[in-house]
Design brief:
heterodimer, A: alpha+beta, Alpha-Beta Plaits, 3-stranded mixed beta sheet, two-stranded antiparallel sheet, 9 helices, 9 strands, B: 387 residues, mainly alpha, Formate dehydrogenase/DMSO reductase fold, globular
Amino acid sequence: MSKAVLYDSTLCVGCKACEGACAERWGNPYNDKIAAEERLSAHKLTAIETHGERFSRRLCMHCEEPTCASVCPVGALKKTSLGPVVYDADKCMGCRYCMTACPFQVPTYEWDKRLPKVRKCDMCYERQAKGEPTACTAACPTGATICGERDALVAEARKRMAEKPGDYYQKIYGLKEAGGTSVLYLSAVPFEKIGLKTNLPQEPLPALTWRVLSLVPDVVSVGSVLLGGIYWITNRRDEVSRKEGK
Amino acid sequence: MSRILARFTVWRAIFAVLALAGLYATWVRAYYGLGAATNLSDQFPWGIWIGFDILCGVGLAAGGFTLVAVVHIFNIERYRPILRPAILTAFLGYLLVIFALLFDLGRPDRVWHPLILWNPHSVMFEVGWCVTLYTTVLFLEFIPTVLERFSLHRPLAYMRMISVPLMIVGVILSTLHQSSLGSLYLIVPHKLDALWYSPLLPLFFYISAICAGLAMTIFESWHSSRAFGRALELPLLSGMARVLAVLLSVYLMMRYLDLSHRGALPLLLENRTETWLFGLEISLLVLPMLLLYRRWVRQRPGALYACAVMVLFGFVTNRLNVSITGMEAGSGTHYIPKWTEVAVTLAIVALGFAIFRVVAHYFPIFEAEHREIPAEVSEPAEIMEVR
């Protein structure tokens, strides 16, 4: 069973308490100016976005089969059995393939540092491991963000939609997107209206490259035999003609 | 030394300017970091250092493995005179690609990490390994030139013993990573424009790299014949141009069928920047393809050269379209490289030209490979047979 976060946009009042708690937990600076930046960055690992009268929250989606972990050439990103996708800065060489590949455009980079790291939410791994809620959940005054087991949160989301069908767009974002994520969204309006990507495949993305990568041994074995064979044939022809010439 | 380096020419002046600008940009990159040296952002983390230096650099060096296959595996001996320049281009190309990568990596001191920290699910991991191994193979393929220069016959004989398996390994490694550079983009179906995103990206990258390799060989033969006052190997080049024309036709036909099967053809009617740059890319490949089918084009050095240049530009446009043009809308941002990015890239290209010139001047690159080995050096008879 894995941990997850449920964000209910209909309950969010945009107080940004989650942002402040997150900054504190990471030791990042936080002030009015940073609060006004409505996007993720290396010093802001969660961000509240305003979409008209509604709010939306951005954070790492902690995919069930994360694209970032699949593309990382050094295995610096890993999906833990606990649920969070965590990052090991000591392994990272800074190729930024995770940033290019992430379907949710989550990982950010310390562009101004001489020895930069990738930055992203790790769902408060060490707190969750101790059974404590994430810092954002603990800070949320309205219960718009809650955390727990993914199955329980899916059930909770379904319950809310069933109890107040008029208040909710009848879908859970994150259930199937990119093969399913550990951050789930509820909203009153279709998800693209609160800035979420709805053009994503329903299957995990890593399969797209694995399909090709798994052919590597075949290319190597068939290729060597084929090339060796061609070499043998073409050079044999030469040897024969050379002998006959003599 | 003094004869070649002391003469002042316009080209040397240009080289000096590019080198100085590149050095300054290198300092900005090293001291202030990627943020100061590039226009990259969280939304757009890969710019021309990946799109040009890596994707184009590796592709343009594909002439090395193509000619090795032609001469040594398919045993088409008459292409031997242009094999060495192609291997040298490839070897320099890969060294420069690795050098360029050090600029782009956030932690260049950890460039070796993929060799010990494995993730076989990552295309980047595979590319890293292949490029490392293939650069080693190119080094071993280039070494005989150096051994000949200093008349070291015994190691030369040993090198020839491993040459065939080495060359087969080289062709396979090239096949793998040339196509894998395309596979890198298979993971971004949601970001890369439908004009370029295709499940066939690896195949397209592979075939177009061979085209670029052939074009590059024509390009460099033309230049070196002028620079070193040699006769141009016209019959060879026009023979290669014929192959290039056929390969380009196959490639373009596949691109067309791919667009049509994916239902992406209507996109060509939309007036977008993507459409125009796609048009530019395809025109730069279709035009030389049509021209190269004509005998008079293939037999005129100037026309042949012009076609090769068009193919090279078409190839570069394709790689930049995949890595930049096609990724902008999906990333929700625009990217124009900063001058420091351009300066580093140009300086690396200039460095490539300069090193090639110097190496070609001092080593037997353009001479026919020495076939005879002095009798006093014992060597397995079989190897002699093969040569």
